[in-house]
Amino acid sequence: MYEERFDKRKFDELRPMEAETGIIPNAKGSARFKIGNTEAIAAVYGPEEVKPRHIEKVNKGIIVCKYDMLPFSVPDRAKPGMDRRDIEISQVITNALNRAVILEDMPRAMVNVRIYITQADAGTRCASLTAASMACADAGLPMRDLVAAVAAGKIGDSICLDLTKEEEDFHEGGATDVPIGILPSKDEIVLLQLDGKVTREELKKVIEVGKKGAMEIYELEKAALKRRFLNESKS
Amino acid sequence: MTLENYNYMRELAERKIRLDQRSEFEGRKITIKDNVINHSDGSAYVELGGTKVIAGVKVLNGTPFPDRPNEGALVVNFEASELASNYNDDRINYSIEVGRVTDRGIRESNLIDLTKLVIEEGKTVSFVYVDIVCLNNEGNLFDAGNIAALRALLNAKYKVEGKEEALKLPLDRSKLAISHTFAKINGVIFFDPTAEEEKAADARFTIGVSEKINSLQKGGDGFFTPEEIDFCVGKAIELREERFKTLMENINN
Fold it and tell me: Are B65 and B83 spatial neighbours (Cβ–Cβ below 8 Å)?
Protein backbone atom coordinates (compact mmCIF):
# COMPACT_ATOMS: atom_id res chain seq x y z
CA MET A 1 0.00 0.00 0.00
CA TYR A 2 1.07 3.53 -0.75
CA GLU A 3 -0.49 5.78 1.87
CA GLU A 4 1.82 8.76 2.00
CA ARG A 5 3.81 10.04 -0.93
CA PHE A 6 7.59 10.02 -0.75
CA ASP A 7 7.73 13.80 -0.94
CA LYS A 8 4.71 14.27 1.39
CA ARG A 9 2.55 15.78 -1.34
CA LYS A 10 -1.19 15.25 -1.44
CA PHE A 11 -2.29 12.63 -3.96
CA ASP A 12 -3.72 15.24 -6.32
CA GLU A 13 -1.03 17.84 -5.81
CA LEU A 14 1.44 18.93 -8.47
CA ARG A 15 5.11 19.49 -7.79
CA PRO A 16 6.23 23.15 -7.62
CA MET A 17 6.27 24.60 -11.12
CA GLU A 18 8.03 27.37 -12.98
CA ALA A 19 7.19 28.65 -16.43
CA GLU A 20 8.99 31.25 -18.46
CA THR A 21 8.94 32.29 -22.10
CA GLY A 22 11.35 34.04 -24.41
CA ILE A 23 14.45 32.42 -22.93
CA ILE A 24 16.16 31.85 -26.29
CA PRO A 25 16.33 35.20 -28.08
CA ASN A 26 17.46 33.63 -31.37
CA ALA A 27 14.31 31.56 -31.71
CA LYS A 28 10.97 32.86 -32.93
CA GLY A 29 9.43 31.57 -29.73
CA SER A 30 10.82 29.73 -26.75
CA ALA A 31 9.82 28.53 -23.32
CA ARG A 32 11.08 26.76 -20.23
CA PHE A 33 8.85 24.65 -18.06
CA LYS A 34 9.95 23.15 -14.79
CA ILE A 35 7.92 20.82 -12.63
CA GLY A 36 9.70 19.44 -9.59
CA ASN A 37 13.05 18.20 -10.82
CA THR A 38 11.93 17.83 -14.41
CA GLU A 39 12.86 20.67 -16.71
CA ALA A 40 12.21 21.09 -20.41
CA ILE A 41 13.21 23.90 -22.73
CA ALA A 42 11.62 24.36 -26.13
CA ALA A 43 12.38 26.58 -29.10
CA VAL A 44 10.23 27.23 -32.14
CA TYR A 45 11.65 28.29 -35.51
CA GLY A 46 9.37 29.20 -38.37
CA PRO A 47 6.95 29.14 -40.11
CA GLU A 48 9.50 28.91 -42.89
CA GLU A 49 10.21 27.20 -46.19
CA VAL A 50 9.85 23.43 -46.03
CA LYS A 51 13.06 21.44 -46.08
CA PRO A 52 13.34 18.73 -47.35
CA ARG A 53 10.99 19.77 -50.12
CA HIS A 54 9.15 16.47 -50.50
CA ILE A 55 7.49 16.63 -47.08
CA GLU A 56 5.72 19.86 -47.99
CA LYS A 57 1.92 19.86 -47.89
CA VAL A 58 0.02 22.15 -50.21
CA ASN A 59 -3.09 22.55 -48.07
CA LYS A 60 -1.52 23.01 -44.65
CA GLY A 61 1.66 23.55 -42.72
CA ILE A 62 3.68 20.86 -41.01
CA ILE A 63 5.33 20.63 -37.63
CA VAL A 64 8.64 18.85 -37.25
CA CYS A 65 9.39 18.18 -33.64
CA LYS A 66 12.52 16.85 -32.01
CA TYR A 67 12.62 15.71 -28.41
CA ASP A 68 16.02 14.97 -26.98
CA MET A 69 17.26 14.10 -23.54
CA LEU A 70 20.55 15.80 -22.84
CA PRO A 71 23.38 13.47 -21.76
CA PHE A 72 23.55 14.91 -18.25
CA SER A 73 19.79 14.92 -17.64
CA VAL A 74 19.64 11.43 -16.11
CA PRO A 75 21.55 9.70 -13.28
CA ASP A 76 23.75 7.57 -15.61
CA ARG A 77 24.34 9.27 -18.92
CA ALA A 78 21.99 9.44 -21.87
CA LYS A 79 23.75 8.78 -25.14
CA PRO A 80 23.76 11.97 -27.20
CA GLY A 81 21.32 12.01 -30.08
CA MET A 82 17.89 10.47 -30.47
CA ASP A 83 17.13 6.88 -29.55
CA ARG A 84 13.96 4.87 -30.17
CA ARG A 85 12.26 6.34 -27.11
CA ASP A 86 13.03 9.90 -28.20
CA ILE A 87 11.63 9.22 -31.66
CA GLU A 88 8.37 7.86 -30.27
CA ILE A 89 7.99 10.79 -27.89
CA SER A 90 8.74 13.26 -30.70
CA GLN A 91 5.97 11.57 -32.65
CA VAL A 92 3.31 11.81 -29.93
CA ILE A 93 4.23 15.43 -29.18
CA THR A 94 3.98 16.27 -32.88
CA ASN A 95 0.53 14.64 -32.98
CA ALA A 96 -0.62 16.76 -30.07
CA LEU A 97 0.78 20.01 -31.49
CA ASN A 98 -0.80 19.26 -34.86
CA ARG A 99 -4.17 19.63 -33.19
CA ALA A 100 -3.24 22.66 -31.09
CA VAL A 101 -1.74 24.74 -33.90
CA ILE A 102 -4.06 25.79 -36.72
CA LEU A 103 -1.94 24.43 -39.54
CA GLU A 104 -4.54 25.21 -42.19
CA ASP A 105 -3.53 28.85 -41.80
CA MET A 106 0.02 28.27 -43.01
CA PRO A 107 0.04 26.11 -46.15
CA ARG A 108 3.42 25.13 -47.61
CA ALA A 109 5.22 26.15 -44.47
CA MET A 110 7.06 24.29 -41.81
CA VAL A 111 7.49 24.89 -38.11
CA ASN A 112 10.49 23.44 -36.31
CA VAL A 113 10.01 22.62 -32.65
CA ARG A 114 13.06 21.53 -30.71
CA ILE A 115 12.84 20.36 -27.15
CA TYR A 116 15.65 19.54 -24.76
CA ILE A 117 15.27 17.87 -21.40
CA THR A 118 17.87 19.40 -19.13
CA GLN A 119 16.80 17.50 -16.04
CA ALA A 120 14.67 14.39 -15.90
CA ASP A 121 12.61 13.17 -12.99
CA ALA A 122 9.62 11.50 -14.69
CA GLY A 123 6.93 13.23 -16.69
CA THR A 124 9.37 14.53 -19.29
CA ARG A 125 7.04 14.09 -22.26
CA CYS A 126 4.34 16.09 -20.52
CA ALA A 127 6.75 18.84 -19.50
CA SER A 128 8.05 18.90 -23.08
CA LEU A 129 4.61 19.23 -24.57
CA THR A 130 3.68 22.00 -22.14
CA ALA A 131 6.90 23.88 -22.92
CA ALA A 132 6.47 23.33 -26.67
CA SER A 133 2.94 24.68 -26.70
CA MET A 134 4.04 27.75 -24.75
CA ALA A 135 6.88 28.28 -27.22
CA CYS A 136 4.42 28.03 -30.13
CA ALA A 137 2.21 30.65 -28.50
CA ASP A 138 5.27 32.80 -27.85
CA ALA A 139 6.17 32.54 -31.53
CA GLY A 140 2.75 33.92 -32.37
CA LEU A 141 1.48 30.86 -34.23
CA PRO A 142 -2.29 30.64 -34.68
CA MET A 143 -3.53 28.16 -32.09
CA ARG A 144 -6.79 26.56 -31.02
CA ASP A 145 -5.60 26.50 -27.43
CA LEU A 146 -2.50 25.92 -25.34
CA VAL A 147 -1.77 22.31 -24.48
CA ALA A 148 -1.53 21.47 -20.80
CA ALA A 149 0.01 18.08 -20.12
CA VAL A 150 0.66 16.15 -16.95
CA ALA A 151 1.23 12.54 -15.96
CA ALA A 152 -1.33 10.97 -13.68
CA GLY A 153 -1.24 7.40 -12.51
CA LYS A 154 -1.86 4.74 -9.95
CA ILE A 155 0.61 3.64 -7.32
CA GLY A 156 -0.43 0.63 -5.31
CA ASP A 157 -4.14 1.38 -5.03
CA SER A 158 -3.92 5.15 -4.92
CA ILE A 159 -4.63 7.45 -7.83
CA CYS A 160 -1.80 10.00 -7.99
CA LEU A 161 -1.01 13.13 -9.91
CA ASP A 162 2.39 14.06 -11.32
CA LEU A 163 4.50 11.01 -10.50
CA THR A 164 8.19 11.27 -9.70
CA LYS A 165 10.79 8.80 -10.92
CA GLU A 166 10.90 7.25 -7.47
CA GLU A 167 7.16 6.65 -7.62
CA GLU A 168 7.26 5.33 -11.18
CA ASP A 169 9.70 2.64 -10.06
CA PHE A 170 7.56 1.74 -7.03
CA HIS A 171 7.49 -2.04 -6.98
CA GLU A 172 5.01 -3.36 -4.44
CA GLY A 173 1.65 -3.29 -6.15
CA GLY A 174 3.17 -1.71 -9.24
CA ALA A 175 2.88 1.73 -10.70
CA THR A 176 0.81 2.85 -13.67
CA ASP A 177 1.82 5.90 -15.61
CA VAL A 178 -0.69 7.80 -17.76
CA PRO A 179 0.62 10.90 -19.56
CA ILE A 180 -2.32 13.10 -20.55
CA GLY A 181 -2.27 16.19 -22.74
CA ILE A 182 -5.43 18.26 -23.19
CA LEU A 183 -6.69 21.43 -24.80
CA PRO A 184 -8.36 22.71 -21.62
CA SER A 185 -10.90 25.12 -23.06
CA LYS A 186 -12.19 22.51 -25.53
CA ASP A 187 -11.86 19.42 -23.33
CA GLU A 188 -10.04 17.56 -26.09
CA ILE A 189 -7.48 14.91 -25.27
CA VAL A 190 -4.58 15.21 -27.70
CA LEU A 191 -2.03 13.01 -25.95
CA LEU A 192 -2.81 9.86 -24.04
CA GLN A 193 -0.62 6.91 -23.26
CA LEU A 194 -0.64 4.32 -20.55
CA ASP A 195 1.54 1.59 -19.25
CA GLY A 196 0.66 -0.47 -16.24
CA LYS A 197 -2.50 -2.04 -14.93
CA VAL A 198 -5.79 -0.27 -14.35
CA THR A 199 -9.45 -1.12 -14.59
CA ARG A 200 -11.91 0.88 -16.65
CA GLU A 201 -13.27 2.70 -13.58
CA GLU A 202 -9.79 3.55 -12.35
CA LEU A 203 -8.84 4.88 -15.76
CA LYS A 204 -11.80 7.24 -15.66
CA LYS A 205 -10.65 8.57 -12.28
CA VAL A 206 -7.06 8.89 -13.47
CA ILE A 207 -8.15 11.00 -16.46
CA GLU A 208 -10.32 13.09 -14.15
CA VAL A 209 -7.39 13.77 -11.81
CA GLY A 210 -5.09 14.45 -14.77
CA LYS A 211 -7.54 16.98 -16.18
CA LYS A 212 -7.68 18.80 -12.88
CA GLY A 213 -3.89 18.98 -12.74
CA ALA A 214 -3.75 20.16 -16.34
CA MET A 215 -6.07 23.07 -15.52
CA GLU A 216 -3.57 24.31 -12.93
CA ILE A 217 -0.75 24.09 -15.45
CA TYR A 218 -2.91 25.90 -17.98
CA GLU A 219 -3.33 28.89 -15.64
CA LEU A 220 0.45 28.99 -15.08
CA GLU A 221 1.09 28.89 -18.85
CA LYS A 222 -1.28 31.77 -19.46
CA ALA A 223 0.27 33.81 -16.65
CA ALA A 224 3.78 33.26 -18.06
CA LEU A 225 2.72 34.38 -21.53
CA LYS A 226 0.90 37.44 -20.20
CA ARG A 227 3.96 38.41 -18.20
CA ARG A 228 6.13 38.19 -21.27
CA PHE A 229 3.95 40.38 -23.43
CA LEU A 230 3.36 42.95 -20.71
CA ASN A 231 7.12 43.34 -20.32
CA GLU A 232 7.57 43.67 -24.03
CA SER A 233 5.10 46.52 -24.34
CA LYS A 234 6.86 48.40 -21.52
CA SER A 235 10.35 48.29 -23.00
CA MET B 1 -4.80 8.97 -51.46
CA THR B 2 -6.51 11.50 -53.70
CA LEU B 3 -8.55 14.29 -52.23
CA GLU B 4 -11.69 12.88 -53.87
CA ASN B 5 -11.21 9.50 -52.22
CA TYR B 6 -10.44 11.17 -48.95
CA ASN B 7 -13.61 13.22 -49.01
CA TYR B 8 -15.63 10.20 -50.11
CA MET B 9 -14.32 8.06 -47.24
CA ARG B 10 -15.18 10.78 -44.75
CA GLU B 11 -18.62 11.24 -46.19
CA LEU B 12 -19.31 7.52 -45.90
CA ALA B 13 -17.90 7.49 -42.37
CA GLU B 14 -20.38 10.12 -41.33
CA ARG B 15 -23.15 7.70 -42.33
CA LYS B 16 -21.28 4.87 -40.57
CA ILE B 17 -20.62 3.03 -43.83
CA ARG B 18 -17.33 1.25 -44.51
CA LEU B 19 -15.97 0.40 -47.93
CA ASP B 20 -15.64 -3.29 -47.07
CA GLN B 21 -19.20 -3.34 -45.74
CA ARG B 22 -18.23 -4.19 -42.18
CA SER B 23 -20.23 -2.72 -39.35
CA GLU B 24 -18.51 -0.14 -37.10
CA PHE B 25 -17.16 -2.59 -34.54
CA GLU B 26 -16.68 -5.65 -36.67
CA GLY B 27 -13.08 -6.83 -36.91
CA ARG B 28 -11.55 -8.45 -39.96
CA LYS B 29 -10.87 -12.17 -40.13
CA ILE B 30 -7.75 -13.38 -38.38
CA THR B 31 -5.78 -16.32 -39.78
CA ILE B 32 -2.85 -17.75 -37.85
CA LYS B 33 -0.12 -20.18 -38.93
CA ASP B 34 2.27 -21.51 -36.32
CA ASN B 35 6.00 -22.13 -36.48
CA VAL B 36 6.61 -20.94 -40.00
CA ILE B 37 10.27 -20.13 -39.39
CA ASN B 38 12.70 -23.03 -38.79
CA HIS B 39 15.47 -21.06 -37.18
CA SER B 40 13.38 -19.24 -34.64
CA ASP B 41 12.46 -20.65 -31.25
CA GLY B 42 8.83 -19.81 -31.89
CA SER B 43 7.07 -17.99 -34.67
CA ALA B 44 3.70 -17.08 -36.04
CA TYR B 45 2.33 -15.77 -39.31
CA VAL B 46 -0.79 -13.72 -38.90
CA GLU B 47 -3.20 -12.32 -41.43
CA LEU B 48 -5.60 -9.67 -40.26
CA GLY B 49 -7.72 -9.15 -43.34
CA GLY B 50 -5.12 -8.11 -45.92
CA THR B 51 -2.46 -7.22 -43.38
CA LYS B 52 0.26 -9.84 -43.14
CA VAL B 53 2.89 -10.04 -40.44
CA ILE B 54 5.44 -12.56 -39.22
CA ALA B 55 6.71 -12.64 -35.66
CA GLY B 56 9.75 -14.64 -34.62
CA VAL B 57 10.97 -15.26 -31.09
CA LYS B 58 14.57 -16.00 -30.25
CA VAL B 59 15.82 -16.74 -26.77
CA LEU B 60 19.52 -16.07 -26.35
CA ASN B 61 21.91 -15.77 -23.44
CA GLY B 62 23.07 -12.36 -22.38
CA THR B 63 24.41 -10.32 -19.49
CA PRO B 64 21.66 -8.84 -17.30
CA PHE B 65 21.15 -5.10 -17.04
CA PRO B 66 23.09 -3.67 -14.06
CA ASP B 67 19.91 -2.42 -12.35
CA ARG B 68 18.10 -5.75 -12.80
CA PRO B 69 20.73 -8.45 -12.04
CA ASN B 70 18.15 -11.15 -11.30
CA GLU B 71 15.89 -10.74 -14.29
CA GLY B 72 15.91 -11.76 -17.91
CA ALA B 73 15.04 -9.20 -20.53
CA LEU B 74 12.48 -8.66 -23.24
CA VAL B 75 13.30 -6.90 -26.50
CA VAL B 76 10.54 -6.18 -28.99
CA ASN B 77 11.25 -4.83 -32.42
CA PHE B 78 8.79 -4.08 -35.20
CA GLU B 79 9.60 -3.35 -38.77
CA ALA B 80 7.11 -2.06 -41.32
CA SER B 81 9.37 -3.22 -44.14
CA GLU B 82 9.74 -1.29 -47.35
CA LEU B 83 8.23 -4.08 -49.40
CA ALA B 84 4.99 -4.00 -47.40
CA SER B 85 3.62 -0.82 -48.84
CA ASN B 86 4.65 2.16 -50.85
CA TYR B 87 5.15 4.35 -47.82
CA ASN B 88 5.92 7.91 -48.64
CA ASP B 89 6.69 9.43 -45.31
CA ASP B 90 7.36 8.27 -41.83
CA ARG B 91 7.86 4.53 -42.13
CA ILE B 92 10.62 4.44 -39.53
CA ASN B 93 8.79 6.52 -36.94
CA TYR B 94 5.72 4.38 -37.39
CA SER B 95 7.72 1.16 -36.99
CA ILE B 96 9.22 2.41 -33.76
CA GLU B 97 5.86 3.45 -32.40
CA VAL B 98 4.26 0.07 -33.16
CA GLY B 99 7.24 -1.75 -31.68
CA ARG B 100 7.23 0.23 -28.48
CA VAL B 101 3.48 -0.06 -27.95
CA THR B 102 3.63 -3.82 -28.52
CA ASP B 103 6.54 -4.01 -26.11
CA ARG B 104 4.61 -2.07 -23.49
CA GLY B 105 1.59 -4.36 -23.67
CA ILE B 106 3.69 -7.49 -23.15
CA ARG B 107 5.91 -5.95 -20.49
CA GLU B 108 3.33 -4.16 -18.37
CA SER B 109 0.94 -7.11 -18.26
CA ASN B 110 3.80 -9.18 -16.75
CA LEU B 111 3.02 -11.91 -19.27
CA ILE B 112 6.56 -13.24 -19.09
CA ASP B 113 7.95 -13.89 -15.62
CA LEU B 114 11.40 -12.45 -16.25
CA THR B 115 12.71 -13.59 -12.85
CA LYS B 116 12.49 -17.20 -14.09
CA LEU B 117 14.87 -16.49 -16.97
CA VAL B 118 17.97 -16.33 -14.82
CA ILE B 119 20.67 -18.88 -15.67
CA GLU B 120 23.44 -17.67 -13.39
CA GLU B 121 22.56 -14.89 -11.00
CA GLY B 122 24.06 -11.56 -11.97
CA LYS B 123 26.02 -13.11 -14.84
CA THR B 124 23.88 -14.85 -17.40
CA VAL B 125 20.19 -14.47 -18.14
CA SER B 126 17.96 -15.25 -21.10
CA PHE B 127 17.03 -12.45 -23.44
CA VAL B 128 13.70 -12.89 -25.21
CA TYR B 129 13.84 -11.19 -28.59
CA VAL B 130 10.55 -10.72 -30.39
CA ASP B 131 10.99 -9.48 -33.95
CA ILE B 132 7.92 -8.63 -35.95
CA VAL B 133 8.01 -7.86 -39.65
CA CYS B 134 5.12 -6.58 -41.69
CA LEU B 135 4.89 -8.14 -45.14
CA ASN B 136 1.79 -6.38 -46.39
CA ASN B 137 0.29 -3.30 -44.85
CA GLU B 138 -3.47 -3.19 -45.18
CA GLY B 139 -3.91 -1.19 -41.98
CA ASN B 140 -3.92 -1.78 -38.25
CA LEU B 141 -0.35 -2.98 -37.79
CA PHE B 142 -0.73 -2.53 -34.03
CA ASP B 143 -3.24 -5.36 -33.65
CA ALA B 144 -1.68 -7.65 -36.23
CA GLY B 145 1.77 -7.22 -34.68
CA ASN B 146 0.44 -7.76 -31.18
CA ILE B 147 -1.39 -10.98 -32.07
CA ALA B 148 1.61 -12.35 -33.97
CA ALA B 149 3.95 -11.52 -31.07
CA LEU B 150 1.69 -13.17 -28.48
CA ARG B 151 1.17 -16.28 -30.60
CA ALA B 152 4.89 -16.61 -31.26
CA LEU B 153 5.60 -16.33 -27.54
CA LEU B 154 2.98 -18.99 -26.82
CA ASN B 155 4.61 -21.28 -29.39
CA ALA B 156 8.17 -20.73 -28.28
CA LYS B 157 10.31 -23.65 -27.18
CA TYR B 158 13.97 -23.00 -26.59
CA LYS B 159 17.05 -24.92 -25.56
CA VAL B 160 19.45 -24.00 -22.81
CA GLU B 161 22.96 -25.39 -22.61
CA GLY B 162 23.21 -28.35 -20.28
CA LYS B 163 19.54 -29.26 -20.49
CA GLU B 164 18.18 -31.93 -22.80
CA GLU B 165 14.59 -30.86 -22.97
CA ALA B 166 13.36 -27.80 -24.80
CA LEU B 167 11.88 -25.27 -22.41
CA LYS B 168 8.71 -23.22 -22.73
CA LEU B 169 8.70 -19.57 -21.75
CA PRO B 170 7.32 -18.84 -18.26
CA LEU B 171 4.05 -17.27 -19.43
CA ASP B 172 0.98 -16.49 -17.39
CA ARG B 173 -1.88 -16.99 -19.81
CA SER B 174 -4.35 -14.98 -17.79
CA LYS B 175 -2.20 -11.94 -18.59
CA LEU B 176 -2.33 -11.83 -22.37
CA ALA B 177 -2.76 -8.14 -23.18
CA ILE B 178 -4.55 -8.12 -26.52
CA SER B 179 -4.43 -4.96 -28.57
CA HIS B 180 -7.54 -3.29 -29.99
CA THR B 181 -7.22 -0.34 -32.35
CA PHE B 182 -9.89 2.21 -33.15
CA ALA B 183 -9.87 4.99 -35.70
CA LYS B 184 -11.90 8.16 -35.57
CA ILE B 185 -13.02 9.30 -39.00
CA ASN B 186 -15.02 12.49 -39.24
CA GLY B 187 -16.16 12.15 -35.64
CA VAL B 188 -17.25 8.50 -35.91
CA ILE B 189 -15.32 5.69 -34.25
CA PHE B 190 -14.52 2.46 -36.10
CA PHE B 191 -12.77 -0.70 -34.95
CA ASP B 192 -9.88 -2.34 -36.85
CA PRO B 193 -9.25 0.28 -39.57
CA THR B 194 -7.93 -0.63 -43.01
CA ALA B 195 -5.02 1.24 -44.61
CA GLU B 196 -7.43 3.48 -46.49
CA GLU B 197 -9.44 4.23 -43.39
CA GLU B 198 -6.24 5.05 -41.54
CA LYS B 199 -5.38 7.61 -44.20
CA ALA B 200 -8.80 9.24 -43.93
CA ALA B 201 -8.79 9.12 -40.12
CA ASP B 202 -8.25 12.04 -37.76
CA ALA B 203 -7.02 10.05 -34.83
CA ARG B 204 -6.18 6.55 -33.72
CA PHE B 205 -6.48 4.86 -30.36
CA THR B 206 -4.90 1.56 -29.33
CA ILE B 207 -5.87 -0.27 -26.16
CA GLY B 208 -4.10 -3.33 -24.76
CA VAL B 209 -6.49 -5.31 -22.55
CA SER B 210 -5.79 -8.30 -20.33
CA GLU B 211 -7.85 -8.60 -17.15
CA LYS B 212 -7.01 -4.95 -16.80
CA ILE B 213 -5.95 -2.21 -19.19
CA ASN B 214 -2.21 -2.50 -19.75
CA SER B 215 -1.47 -0.05 -22.50
CA LEU B 216 -3.01 2.91 -24.25
CA GLN B 217 -1.69 4.91 -27.14
CA LYS B 218 -3.38 7.79 -28.88
CA GLY B 219 -2.06 8.49 -32.34
CA GLY B 220 -2.85 10.74 -35.26
CA ASP B 221 -3.41 14.46 -35.35
CA GLY B 222 -6.94 14.56 -34.02
CA PHE B 223 -8.35 14.35 -30.51
CA PHE B 224 -10.61 12.24 -28.33
CA THR B 225 -12.96 13.45 -25.63
CA PRO B 226 -12.86 11.70 -22.23
CA GLU B 227 -16.26 10.16 -23.03
CA GLU B 228 -14.98 8.71 -26.31
CA ILE B 229 -11.96 7.26 -24.50
CA ASP B 230 -14.19 5.51 -22.00
CA PHE B 231 -16.46 4.29 -24.79
CA CYS B 232 -13.50 2.77 -26.69
CA VAL B 233 -12.18 1.13 -23.54
CA GLY B 234 -15.60 -0.44 -22.93
CA LYS B 235 -15.77 -1.69 -26.52
CA ALA B 236 -12.26 -3.13 -26.31
CA ILE B 237 -13.15 -5.09 -23.17
CA GLU B 238 -16.23 -6.39 -24.96
CA LEU B 239 -14.33 -7.35 -28.12
CA ARG B 240 -11.47 -9.03 -26.26
CA GLU B 241 -13.30 -12.31 -25.72
CA GLU B 242 -13.51 -13.10 -29.41
CA ARG B 243 -9.90 -12.11 -30.12
CA PHE B 244 -8.75 -14.20 -27.16
CA LYS B 245 -10.56 -17.24 -28.55
CA THR B 246 -8.93 -16.79 -31.95
CA LEU B 247 -5.52 -16.30 -30.36
CA MET B 248 -5.75 -19.44 -28.23
CA GLU B 249 -7.21 -21.69 -30.93
CA ASN B 250 -5.29 -24.96 -31.29
CA ILE B 251 -2.89 -24.05 -28.51
CA ASN B 252 -2.50 -26.94 -26.14
CA ASN B 253 -1.15 -26.84 -22.64
Answer: no
pLDDT in tens, A41-56: 999 998 999 988 988 9
Spatial separation of the C-alpha atoms in residues A183 and B225, rounded to whole Å:
10
Q: How many CB pairs under 8 A join A and B?
A: 93
Rounded to whole angstroms, the Cα distance separating A194 from A208 reads 15
Q: Do B229 and A55 touch (CB under 8 A)?
A: no
What pTM, to 2 d.p., does this model score? Answer: 0.92
Interchain contact, A197 vs B214, CB within 8 Å: yes
E strands, A105-223, are 109-119, 148-155, 158-161, 175-183, 188-198
CA angle A5, A10, A12 (to 5 degrees): 110
Give the pLDDT confidence score for residue A103 in this predicted structure.
96
Query: Looking at residue B161, what is its pLDDT?
Result: 81
Domain total of chain A: 1
* Amino acid symbol at B37: I
Residue-wise pLDDT tens digits, B172-222: 999 999 999 999 999 999 999 999 999 999 999 999 999 999 999 999 999
* Tens-digit pLDDT profile for residues A164-191: 998 888 777 678 999 999 999 999 999 9
CA distance A109 to A64: 11
Are A193 and B222 in contact (CB < 8 Å)?
A: no
CB atoms within 10 A of CB B85: 18
Amino acid type, A87: I
Q: Is residue A10 part of a domain?
A: no
Does B85 score more than 90 pLDDT? no
The answer to whether the complex's ipTM is over 0.90 is no
> B217 phi and psi, to 5 degrees?
-150, 120
Q: B96 to chain A: which residues are within 8 Å by CB?
A: 84, 87-88, 91
Tell me the CATH architecture of domain B3-248.
Answer: 2-Layer Sandwich (3.30)
Inter-chain touch B99–A190, beta carbons under 8 Å? no
Among residues A79, A177, A190, the alpha carbon closest in space to that of A132 is found at A190
Please answer whether residues A2 and A170 qualify as being in contact, where contact means their C-beta atoms are separated by less than 8 angstroms: yes
Q: How far is A38 from chain B (nearest CA, A)?
A: 22
CB-closest option in A193, A195, A204 to B218 = A193
Domain membership flag for residue A110: yes
Examine residue A6 and state whether it is found in any structural domain, yes or no.
Answer: no
Q: Are A99 and B97 in contact (CB < 8 Å)?
A: no
Question: Average of pLDDT values for A207-217?
Answer: 95
For A114, phi then psi, to 5°, come to -120, 130
